[in-house]
């Protein structure tokens, strides 16, 4: 991708279309898979060069609208499951559980 060629994905437009959670989840999922594979290979392969193994951590991500759409659906399912659990708690007036789930969501997505 290049700004001069005009084929850059604008994160603001992506967030407006798919949502922040879907974009964060997509980026975190793509980064985690690459990083875990590269780090595992680096730790197990003592004969390989550091440059070759470490370079796998910085591979480009294949960001597509299909992947963003499926991850948006997945994050919506997670969010709806959390709301369903909260609505079916014995005490409907207990707001602290909802605040706890929101805090967990913020903590989880803040690391991505």
Automatic annotation (TrEMBL):
Domain spans labelled Aminoacyl-tRNA synthetase class Ia: 1-33
This protein's record includes keyword ATP-binding: yes
The entry's keywords: Aminoacyl-tRNA synthetase, ATP-binding, Ligase, Nucleotide-binding, Protein biosynthesis
EC number, UniProt record: 6.1.1.9
InterPro entries cross-referenced by the UniProt entry: aa-tRNA-synth_Ia (IPR002300), Valyl-tRNA_ligase (IPR002303)
Pfam families, per the entry: tRNA-synt_1
Lineage: superkingdom: Eukaryota
An example Gene Ontology molecular-function term: ATP binding
Biological process according to GO: valyl-tRNA aminoacylation
Name of this protein: valine--tRNA ligase
Underlying gene: EMB2247_1
């Amino acid at each position: 991708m290049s700004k001069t060629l005009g084929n850059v994905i604008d994160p603001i437009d992506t967030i407006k279309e798919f949502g922040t959670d879907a974009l964060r989840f997509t980026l975190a999922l793509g980064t985690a898979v690459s990083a875990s594979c590269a780090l595992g290979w680096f730790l197990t392969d003592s004969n390989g060069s550091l440059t070759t193994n470490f370079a796998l951590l910085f591979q480009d991500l294949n960001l597509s609208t299909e992947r963003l759409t499926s991850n948006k659906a997945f994050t919506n399912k997670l969010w709806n499951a959390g709301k369903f659990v909260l609505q079916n708690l014995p005490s409907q007036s207990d707001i602290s559980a909802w605040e706890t789930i929101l805090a967990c969501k913020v903590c989880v997505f803040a690391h991505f």
